Amino acid sequence: MPLSRRTFIKDSMILAAGAGLAGNASGIFAAVDGKQTLVVSQFPEPTILTNALTTDGTIYTVTSKLFDGLLSYDAQRKPVPRLATDWHVSDNGLVYTFNLRQGVTWHDGHPFGAEDVAFSLQSIWRKFNSRGITTFAPVSKVETPTPLQVVLTLSTPAPYLLSALSSTDAQVLPQHLYDSGNPLTNPHNIKPIGTGPFKFDRWDRGVSINLVRNEQYWDAGKPHLDALIFRIIPDLTAASAALETQAVQLASVALSNVKRLRGVPQLQVSEISAPYSPGLVGFEFNLEKPVFQDVRVRQAFAHAIDRDFIVKNIYFGFAQPAFSAIPASMSDFYDDSVPRYPFDLAKAEALLEEAGLKKGADGLRLTLFNDPNPANETLQIAHYLRSNLAKIGVKLVIRSQDFPEYVNRVYTRRDFDTTLISATAGPDPVMGTQRFYYSANFKPGIAFSNGARYANPRVDELLDLGQGEVDPVKRKAWYAQFQQIVLTDLPKIPIVSPTVVVVTQKQLKNFFNSSEALYGNFADAVYQA
User: Fold this and answer.
1) Do 56 and 115 belong together in one domain?
2) Is residue 22 scored above 60 in pLDDT?
């Protein structure tokens, strides 16, 4: 049953009482004993809390507080130290040396070191993570000459590598807890032991995920907050109400509510149009289905999408139309000259006719399923497309399901016709984009991989060239060719690149301490009157 505004407020007060919080004039974040607890609205609820094993974006907001990466990234997306204090890249671009921070311990007190990094790269990232499989493929050797130094030798240059070492893209796991058994069923996936500023406390399924301050954190004096509570709120209207009553201090809300919330005196709206890893929403085909093997059918679907309508009426202006496989905000790689498919239902219908899909007596040419990535906006896009496609004789049957079932259906069972995917495309094409188009990345069971089962030898070649090219001009040219081909082949139709919108209480400061935004570690977050 959906969570009502009244029920949410009541439950939030119960949660606050259980956490030792007092609801006062400045909100429930002020504790009786003077401690500071931040309550964050969270939905969907994650399935696990270790994103080293998955690219499920529902995890990132929570897990990034539990684990630090080797690096973080400043407002210009340049690397800055975290678990690595400094690094050196050889002149030929084939050897990366990382010196690790002294005195870092895992939350269980075990010392962190180079063996943890080597283990994570070799046994976790490039085996179980759809981004890591591609990102770390060029690493031919990992050495640990000292307990606090890691040396990576590459078979080919990887100019993107220093952009790939955040806690979300390359989460270091503790070797002493993962070096035996199946990592996918390790009990620490739901009770993580990390190195980050916050430690796992408890997970009350369907209610909250609670973290507490890591008193032994390597960055002395941080974090400033004593606890984080991620409150599971499936209703975005209830999340807005919780902000207004100060029952939560940070939330993503229904975009239709943002204009009104700007007028609430105690609230602050933050927008990030080009974060560390910009998102892209696209309509993807299962190319194993014979009907979608005719490119004219895929082109017809592209002509049935009015991006301007979607930006205005579903995202309320908090998105940019997307025309290519790489978002425009990734300007180092974006190609604006790709083939475009303007909204034109007459053209769409003509293409279906050419493809031999004639209308039956019931007026239908085709009936198919769509499985949208569970999120408020993608579901709305699905309903909008259903209406448009009905006008050209296509019946789109929308199947709504929770996130685990969505991933299982699309990426394991492959029981789907089309899907709407919302996923990150950066910060580099190797990390965010390539996984959806590289033929070798068709890996059933791996979430957010090549679910379309798209295969084009020239695209594979261009992605290989782009991955290893050190000259930025040549690299952009390889990716421009890649975009030209995949926007001709259309295994996936780009639709929009959303703006990240977060609403907070104004007293909450410095929670964005890197270009990773919500996926930063919140070590600097603090309440200021």
Assistant:
1) no
2) no
